[in-house]
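User: I'm new to structure prediction. If I give you an amino acid sequence, what do you actually give back? Let's try with this one:
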Amino acid sequence: MTPTPVRPPLRSPLPRGPGRIRPRRAPRDLGTLALTLALAGIAVVLAPVALRAAGQPGADDTLMTWWQLAVMFAGTAVFVVHLEFGSEAETFSLSEIPLVLGLFFARPEALLGGRLLGEAVVVLLVRRQRSAKAAFNLCLFASETAIALALFHSLGSDPDPLRPEAWVRALVAAGAASLLGALAVWIVVRLHAGAAKPQRLLLAAAVTVVANTSLAAVAAVLLRAAPLALLPLLTVAGVLVAAYRGYNRLAHRYEGLELLYQFTRITGGPARPEDTVQRVLAEAGRLLRARHAMIALFTPGSDEPWLFLHASTEPGDAGTGRRPDGDNLPARLRRQVLREGRSLLIRRGASDPEDREVLAGLAAQDCLAAPLTSGEQTSGVFVVTDRLGQVSTFDDEDRRLFATLAAQAAVALENGRLVQRLQEQARVRAHESRHDALTGLPNRTMFSERLRHDLDARGTRRGAVLLMDLDGFKEVNDTLGHHIGDQLLQEVGRRVRDAVGGRGMVARLGGDEFVVLLPDLMDVGAGLALAGEVVLALGRPMQLAAMTLEVGASVGLAVWPDHGTDPTTLLQRADVAMYAAKRTRGGITLYDPDTDWNSQVRLRLAGELRAALEQHQIDVWYQPIARAADGHVVGAEALVRWLHPELGRLSPAEFIPVAERSGLIHDLTLYVLDDALAQVAAWRAGGLELFVTVNLPPQVLRDVDWAAKVADRITRHGVDPRWLTFEITETGIMTDPERMVVVLGDIAASGISFAIDDFGTGYSSLAYLQQLPVSKVKIDKSFVTPMTQDPAAAAIVRSVVDLARSLGLTVVAEGVEDGRTLDQLVAVDCPLVQGYVLSRAIPPADLTTWILQRRATAAAVGAGRVGRAAR
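Assistant: Good question. You get back a string of structure tokens that encode the predicted 3D arrangement of the chain. For your 871 residues, that looks like this:
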């Protein structure tokens, strides 16, 4: 029995070029050399012992000559049985048979010389083993033969094969030789493969030596007693060997199917192409018992590999990884496998020059190569080299198995690429679902996720949400087209992102709404400062499509935890602040609960306001309007008040926005109008000729039936339309000035007059003022109140008075709170005044009493100013 170790690697798996440096001898090679010398020492020591123990030759000792034994040993070395255990491969021969026959019928020196000669012929000439491996094997054969001779002749002097005692001696001698060989093989396998299992190796050696020794003993008995009986024995032995070889081939095929199934299962899962290649390499090397496996993947139509991976089953080798020498694949591999799509098998010891050139290019002893084909396109080359084992090399069965593996690998790679493409598409879709397609910024979904995450993890930190809306974007879209509008939004996104930088997250919610998330806010002032930077960045001119555009932005700021602790509330309150910024044109507004009509209190008021109107719980109070020169009261402004049963007296600022948002502003205006007309009629009946002014919201003027509703109420109360004045703000007029001219003209046709409220704070046009049926202008109190201390405010008031006089309009100064202001208004010839210098808004009965008292006082003291008399 001759077990053979795995071939030790003596060169790198791929060439590094003509000038590569020979690597240093590895420790495993030094261990093999030491073992070889030890085996040689055993042979040198035990050979003289065997010669002395054999003594003088007998008649039977010369039955076999050295050359006969040499032929027998050579034959058993050529016709061998291969056993493979995973990555380990052992070769078992029938060498115990000539060994045992030599012990019985040959001189020790003839047996030793015959074996060395026969084995040397096979090792050097047939298998062409290299010097180190050949030396190891010959020393192993010599030591095995020497230990067998020494034991056989030391345990007894009679070599007669007819004696059972001689059979036992032969079994012990052959067993010792087999044990020595198995241990030597295990040591080498351990050095080079690192995973040898001695139990399995020794068990196989024991079974083989018992069988071969028994067969040799039978042959020796027959050779001694009946030589012709050897013929049927040899026939039976030949049949058994052939049957075993057939069984071994069937087992190998079955094992190949099982390995193919395992390969399909391991590489069949979805993975990236590189991960799939690594799995394929590792499994192919293991299944085909190859030392090296490599894959080169090529782009269609190119000879340059875009990926080249190599794997080795050798411990301590480079392992799997990228290597720079994929473009050094031998030309025949590229031609036959890559271009022609045919597999390639080159066995060990090939003599064809092209085959030897391929092996030299791969630095291999044998190789298998197959194309990786997807459809009709060859995408790569799959190669395994250096079959493990001394005698074993790749054969046609391996070639067919490898071709199947390559086909399966190609499918796995294609699946990997398909999965990768699908994953990439999924990543793109996921990105698109969370990002705005126009600006590339995060969208509402991603912003909400990030805001929710920051709120959950905020701890004691403060944060803010800045919601902004562009001013004038609709005009840009309508005038210049959506293409320019899109470019504008992209530029806005870039500017906001640059202004915020790493301090927060910028997202586009849709349309011209952008939002900024500030997760770490030192204080509210820092948030307002950042909002100012954003507004400043957006205020710079933008060059788009050969034109310069300027846009502004209104920004609303909501802070957590002050204004809310959930995404919905914060966004809603930032939206409230943003619309407040739009109304005041202040640019930036911090959320104020007092002006939030969406607050719980205001939502409650929206539901209760309708009931209050139906049940006449809303009061209309009046603030007097008098001549500045003599203090004579000529009219009053109707102002609404609400005495809420639970919340107490509510000012108009608290519920008028609720009425506007809830759509009750029409009903509320009609309610006030009814009360005002009824009060005018009552005053007229009491001898007081007073006109009344009623505020007219812009929303009401959009009602096409409003003029008819007003006329109906004037008729119902029997009031002369000249005693009614509607007040409308400049902003309300300029929302749609052309329509306002028509609507107000229809109402004025009945005799009703109009006054512009808060004059000077809006953006009215004198051209439209000339077309509107306006008889009065009311100077806003923001100019009137500070005029005694602010010369600029006084100049504005004087200019408005002069302008109104030139246009034939009556001026009413609001917010007159003291005598000095009243004196200054008289000095500039302002006709009418209104304010605390006269009276606050009071109930109509109290106002009537107050007017009558003032007139009585004026009559008692004679001529004089009512204001001074009141003091």
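You can read the tokens as a compact description of the fold. Here is one thing that stands out. Residues 396-434 form the longest helix (39 residues).
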